[in-house]
Amino acid sequence: MALFTRTKRPAAPVAAPAADPALAALTGDYTIDPAHSGIGFAVRHAMVTNVRGAFGSYEGTLALDGTDPARSTAALDIRTASIDTGIADRDGHLRSADFFDAETFPLMTFRSTAAEQVAADRYRLTGDLTVKDVTAPVTLDLEFNGSATDVYGAERVGFTGHAEILRSRWGLTWNAALETGGVMVSDKVKLTFDISAVKAA
User: pLDDT for 94-130, tens place per residue?
Assistant: First the structure.
C-alpha cells in the first residue's frame, strides 16, 4: 500500500534559459542603411500576373534588446513619391489621389507596438501602419540574418521579412473592372523587406 500512499514531491522549478551572449551583445540603437536595404511589394495585375515595385527613399531606426526581444522597437518613414514600378505612367498614377496622393501625404509610416521571438532566428513585429490619413495594425514576420562588422568598422545587423495586407484597409480602393470578369488590381498586397542596419557608435 505504501506505493499508492506515497506523497508526491513537487517538481523542481525549471530554470529560465540563459541569455545568448551573442544576441545580448547586439542590444542597442540602429539606423537603417537604405544603400544596402530594400522595401518592395507585389500586387496581382489583371488577375493573371504580378506587378512588382519598390520604394526608393525611406529612413528608419531599430532599438534592439538582445536579452529580451519583446522590448525591441522599430520605426520607419517611407516617402510615397519614391514608388518605382519601372513604368513612369504607372508610377505617376500611383502617386496621384487615386492611390497614395503623394503631394498631400508625402510619408507613410510604421511604428511598432509589440515584438516577439517565435523561433531561433524568427521574430514577429506588430505595429501601426499609417497611409494617407488612415492608421491600422499590421504584422511583419522577420528572419534574423546575422550580424557583422563591415570593412569600415561599423556593426551591422540584417533582417528579411514579409507581410500581406489589404490595401482597402487604408482607403486605397481604386480599381477597374475587366471585361472578362475580375478587376485590374488585387486588394491583397505582398510586402517584402531586406534590412541592413548600422549600430550607433
Answer: 999 999 999 999 999 999 999 999 988 999 999 999 9
For 84, the grid coordinates are 518605382
Is 95 in contact with 80 (CB distance < 8 Å)?
yes
Q: Are strands 185-199 and 49-55 parallel, antiparallel or unpaired?
A: unpaired
pLDDT of residue 24: 86
Q: Is 3 exposed, middle or buried (0-12, 13-18, 19+ CB in 10 A)?
A: exposed
Q: Do 117 and 125 touch, CB atoms closer than 8 A? A: no
For residue 5, pLDDT beyond 80: no
Cα–Cα distance measured from residue 45 to residue 52, given in angstroms and rounded to the nearest whole number: 10
Q: Which of 78, 145, 138, 144 is nearest to 114 (CA)?
A: 138
Pairing of strands 155-166, 134-149: antiparallel
Q: Are 110 and 127 in contact (CB under 8 A)?
A: yes
- Nearest Cα neighbor of 29 from 62, 6, 5, 3 is 62
The three cell numbers of residue 173 are 480602393
For the chain, where are the alpha helices, taking DSSP H only? Answer: 2-5, 21-24, 88-95
Q: Judge whether 189 and 43 are in contact, CB under 8 Å.
A: yes
Distances (CA, A) of 143 to 117, 139, 159, 177: 10, 13, 5, 38
Give the tens place of pLDDT for each residue, 17-39.
445 677 888 999 999 999 999 99
The residues pairing with 193 across neighbouring beta strands, listed in sequence order, are 39, 161
What would the mean pLDDT of 4-10 be, rounded to a whole number?
48
